[in-house]
Amino acid sequence: MILYYYAKTKSRQSKLMTPGMELRTEILSVRRSNVSNARNKELFSRGNNDEGPLAAPTASSSIGRASSLFKRHNVTSSFSACLKQQDPSQNHAYGEHLEYVTVFDDEDEYDAARSTWNHAKLHLQFPNIIAFPASAEEVSLVVKCTRLSGQYICARNGKHSFESDTCTYGVVVDVSKMKQITTLDGRLEGKESPVVRLGAGLTLGQVAVEVVKLGLVVPMGSCATVGLTGLTLVGGQGPLSRLYGMLSDYVSAIELIDERAQIVLATASNEYADYLWLARGGGSGTHHFPGIITAIELSGLPSSESSSSDTKSYIDFRIEYNPTVENAVQMLSDWQKLHMDPKYINDPLFNRITMEPWIFVDAAKKGYGWKKKVFLTVYFYGTAKHRSDFRSRYMPMLKIIFTGTTKAKITNWQYHTSIGFQRYLAGVKSNKKLASGKHGWNINDRWKGYSAVVSKAVSNKAFRILAEGILESQPMSKRYVELKPLGGEIKKMDKSETAFSHRDALWWSLTNHFFPDDINMTSTHADSIRTESRRHHQSFVDAMGGSFSGYYAGYIDRGSSNTLHPSRRELELYYGGNARRIKSIKTKRDPQNLFRVYIPEALSHSVKQGSVALSGAVQAEY
Ligand SMILES: Cc1cc2nc3c(=O)[nH]c(=O)nc-3n(C[C@H](O)[C@H](O)[C@H](O)COP(=O)(O)OP(=O)(O)OC[C@H]3O[C@@H](n4cnc5c(N)ncnc54)[C@H](O)[C@@H]3O)c2cc1C
């Protein structure tokens, strides 16, 4: 296990420290010999009796610069002391050996370790400790020492949270080293497909590469670098969701470390069933899951419909419009009508089609002007018979609806194998790259995103506000909106069966406003982008009236109403009728709110205001 400890580097120290203070960055590498799981579980659960109460937070706005730095030093020291105390080499009964290596003052490694995908809050992200455990037992040790050193803890997987939700001043547990994939033959009884056990640290690209080899399909998101666990915790929607449902619909068990540092397997029928229910779409966003998930079991996964790995069962193409507001409104309106027409939505073949409208603007890199685009991406998945039916039954109709009046053009028609489709979505050429945790798109790394979930038809007036806010804006960077069709298989599960509640939704939108590359995130310019983007989104939501039914936790917006402490109404917007149960499980399983983002009070105030102007006291936390 590798642990990065926070400390000032020399340049930062010289600005903030009083003379004579000395802090250091330690990278502590712990190597562990193999010990059987059963043995470890027994030993670790036995070691759980000496828990003390969670100590006070590590920093607050009221403490002065020097004392705050000393506090950080104290908590990391006591964390480190705890680890050493638990060192199995001190206790031969464990039969293990831990080796510590200490490295000083490596700012680059710390910076790389603390970065999340969205850099918009990087200036607020300075965890005390970042741990990279390789097993459930190591996670248990970290949870235990976090408690004993009086800190807060949160997990991260693919680092794609829209609000950098692993940005904490406490302990971050990065599960990315936990990537094992096994099929559990012993539990096949009564199942049509094997139970697949996946390490919590996998990204979607890594899952795709491995699961295709098993001849199975995992209905998951479209971005290869998103984390499997993070996606499960919000529900998990993607190009196959209308055909097969949400990713979290297939989760049959999870392994986690609870607040007492115990390793727990939660299934639908044991005493930990509430953890499993919560993890299926209600486990992150407005709050943190009450534990660290170390493995996820999927069952009932559909078999691949490709007769061989060379079969090109995916079709994709675009319908491209002249990028005007009129055309954008027409596209959205036609697309929405299609997804409400009983003639189509009751046809199983229609669930194999996924159409996603996009409206996009980007400031030209050189010179003056903006690149604008209005288009529909269309994906189809199925056997040779399905593909032939799609071409004969749906293509003529799609041409009439979408290209008839607007003169839009069909472009980019392609066929893909299963894994080829995943590579295409990720913008990479090889499976190695797909599994690397990176993708091929050049994506700006700082943005503010918003979602809107819709259950009834939206008026053209609202679509116009949406389209104008993109196409008639003159941003210094990029902004876009994409709409995702829902319904189909997603709708078939009861709303209370899992924590994911948007079962009746027609579609949801995701609007992203990007910050220019060279912007200072604490400037008034950055603030004006935040304010303007929120105003645009709010006017879209207001224009939708009763058609608006909430937000998607996957595109969490902590917003101007600080959802670090969400009200009941805010929770209901994300989780509908499941909000109350979600809250009660979190309170019961994590009574001291150990698993959370911890941002010092004054900083959380700044986040609340959407502003990052820092007071003197807050700067002391850096
Ligand atoms: C570029 C991009 C594309 C996206 N595409 C899609 C899409 O196609 N479909 C869709 O539904 N969503 C999509 N999302 C949203 C995404 O699913 C959510 O943001 C998701 O929560 C990210 O998970 P992560 O593991 O990558 O992020 P992280 O930031 O690592 O984690 C997200 C949340 O999950 C918690 N968490 C992570 N691991 C654990 C663990 N082991 N135990 C307990 N809690 C844990 C974190 O604490 C945090 O609260 C996309 C996001 C981005 C940025």
From TrEMBL:
Coiled-coil portions: none
Keywords: FAD, Flavoprotein, Oxidoreductase
Cofactor: FAD
Gene Ontology MF: a single term: FAD binding
Stretches assigned to the FAD-binding PCMH-type domain: 122-303
Entry's family note: Belongs to the oxygen-dependent FAD-linked oxidoreductase family.
Protein name, as recorded: FAD-binding PCMH-type domain-containing protein
Organism: Odontella aurita
